[in-house]
Amino acid sequence: MGEFDLIRRFFTRPAAAPGVALGVGDDCALLQPTPGMQWAISSDMLVEGRHFFAGTDPRRLGHKALAVNLSDLAACGARPRGFTLALALPEANEAWLQAFAQGLLQLADAHDCPLVGGDTTRGPLNLCVTVFGEVPTGQALLRSGARAGDDLYVSGHLGDARLALEALLGRLRLPQALLQGAQQRLEQPTPRVALGLALRGIASSAIDVSDGLLGDLGHVLRASGTGATVDASIAITLIAVCADSESAKCQFDLDFLRQSALAGGDDYELLFTAPAALRSAVAQAAQACGTAVTRIGRIEAEPGLRLVDAQGQALDAQRYASFDHFG
Ligand code: ADP
Ligand code: MG
């Protein structure tokens, strides 16, 4: 199977989406911008051995390659319009490609986000997606908009991906039933696109949690020139595996669970701020798109990140450092 056969068989589909004047097949794709909208564009690369284990289920890998990019659009409150895929493959394995394309294109269809082009080459397995979305001019959610007095929220669950990672690395024993749930969260994250759209005009800032809650919050605080206090006692309630199974909580060191939720990474939830006066608007937006959100703290004028327990006692935030690719 040559390069062009491969592209035709697995990555070319007839369905033309509105706004896609030209998809796969020519030197460029042509996308028609909607008047009054800005493009929101993001790229994310997944490298074997760095972002996923060799032998990861290709269907899940296809899903994740696009999901992490849709998550960036969600964080900006942008609507997906299309994406490109740059793919380096060690070999043209048909079964692998079939499954990979299925996972990728199923998620693409669910978000009306067609594959419009890309590049394919031989090399160590490497997946790079660039996603194109659009947002009404001036309305994108940014990291820089948090203001003192704003509430701080996170969507969905945090920490499960880290528990799965530790288990897969053999550093943690996770009962099979719990591992399955956690591994699903690690390998097939749900991008919070609907929530991002619903938060336009409500949230003052947003970011998606890819490197861990505290680390990603640090980006918001620096960009906004503010500080924050986070209630660490909520952290454990954010871990789905613990919420689903009472026994799970007892199996682990509480501090380890707290660390997984606060610094775990690979969660792809939205971390956002909103004025306290808009609490009911936040609740309505979350309910309308069926995604739970939890208020975990507040933004303050005093720079820095303060972590407190249920009694309001200070905890050492430095102990919960984020996962750093170059660390
Ligand atoms: P060029 O030589 O101009 O770089 P290519 O031969 O690499 O073009 O690609 C031919 C067509 O196939 C282009 O439209 C390109 O966007 C598309 N394409 C290549 N690889 C992929 C892929 N993995 N997924 C989707 N489209 C692809
Ligand atoms: Mg090319």
3D structure, described in words:
The chain is of the alpha+beta class. The chain folds into two domains: 3-136, PurM-like, N-terminal domain (60s Ribosomal Protein L30, Chain: A, 2-Layer Sandwich); 143-316, Phosphoribosyl-aminoimidazole Synthetase, Chain A, domain 2 (Alpha-Beta Complex). 35% of the residues lie in helices and 25% in strands. The chain has helices spanning 3-11, 58-76, 94-110, 160-168, 176-187, 193-198, 213-224, 240-244, 246-251, 254-263, 279-288; strands at residues 20-22, 30-31, 37-47, 79-89, 115-122, 126-136, 151-155, 205-209, 227-231, 269-274, 293-300, 304-308, 314-315. The strands form three sheets. The chain has a seven-stranded mixed beta sheet with strand order 8-10-7-11-9-12-13, with helices on both faces. Strands 3-6-4-5 form a four-stranded mixed beta sheet. Strand 1 and strand 2 form a beta hairpin. 46% of the residues are buried. Adenosine-5'-diphosphate (ADP) is lined by residues 7, 11, 24-27, 85, 87, 115, 117-120.
